[in-house]
Amino acid sequence: MIAWMGYDAPAFEFQSLEAAVTDPTKLQQVGTPWMARQGGAVLAADVNGLAVTHEGGTPSHVTVIGHSYGSTTVADAFANSGMRANDAVLIGCPGTDLAPSAADFHLNGGRVYVGAASTDAISWIAESGSAVPNWVNDALGAPLGPLAGLGTDPAHEGFGSVRFRAEVAGTHNVTPWFNDHSHYYNKGSEALHNITEITVGHGDHLAREGMLAPHRAEERISSPTQIRTPFGTIPLPHVEVTTPATVDPEWDRPGDSVTSDHDFK
């Protein structure tokens, strides 16, 4: 296990959000991908060096984990700087920047795993991609510079990720806010349990443990396929409309199904 802190991360305090968003310097750091791209290049060099120095006959299994802006950095390290590893884990991800799909990680047989609590507001930032942040940024005179937003939500269907359960016990089913962004590593949590399984090479255990989560998706409204009348049943053409609103199936889980007792015995 290596804890890598070898890049300049944005200085942003979620505990004092109101103060942070009024500081243009801090907002520019966290709302744009430049530091992630620079850090990704350094991360890729360090991780790729592990393969060069690896000794012994047993092949190494490298899993790279990134939280929050660090997950954007991990995505850029794979997509833009050629980082080589077996698996990637993104938790509380605000966007994958230069990797709009799992295929852009170029994992040879590996997978992109995603943990995103439905109540983690930061993980919802990427639902607008970079289009809306750029539009707002331009309308305000580009206070964040030429590019705003951090890209795609890896927890959304179509990205190609494997999403695992990462809800926070005690706050499930409440309005998304920023506190739950910092609970992924809590002892006994769903997220930490699943991250551990993946890191030791047992990501395939998540399905049988019931630890996979459905992806976020646009809400769909369907018409009935038939109507009953006094004269009989009349078939109707099936019509399905996709709305702009995104829903998270994890919201529908019973509150008592989210616990903090997922320790390894």
UniProtKB/TrEMBL annotation:
- Gene3D superfamilies noted in UniProt: alpha/beta hydrolase
- Which segment of the chain is annotated as a signal peptide? none
**UniProt xrefs under SUPFAM superfamilies:** alpha/beta-Hydrolases
What are the start and end residues of every segment in region (Disordered)? Answer: 243-265
Domain DUF1023, residue spans: 2-126
Keywords assigned? Hydrolase
Any one GO MF term held by the record is: hydrolase activity
- InterPro entries assigned to the protein according to its UniProt record, in alphabetical order: AB_hydrolase_fold, DUF1023
List the biased-composition ranges (Basic and acidic residues): 250-265
Q: Does Hydrolase count among this protein's keywords?
A: yes
What's the name of the protein? Alpha/beta hydrolase family protein
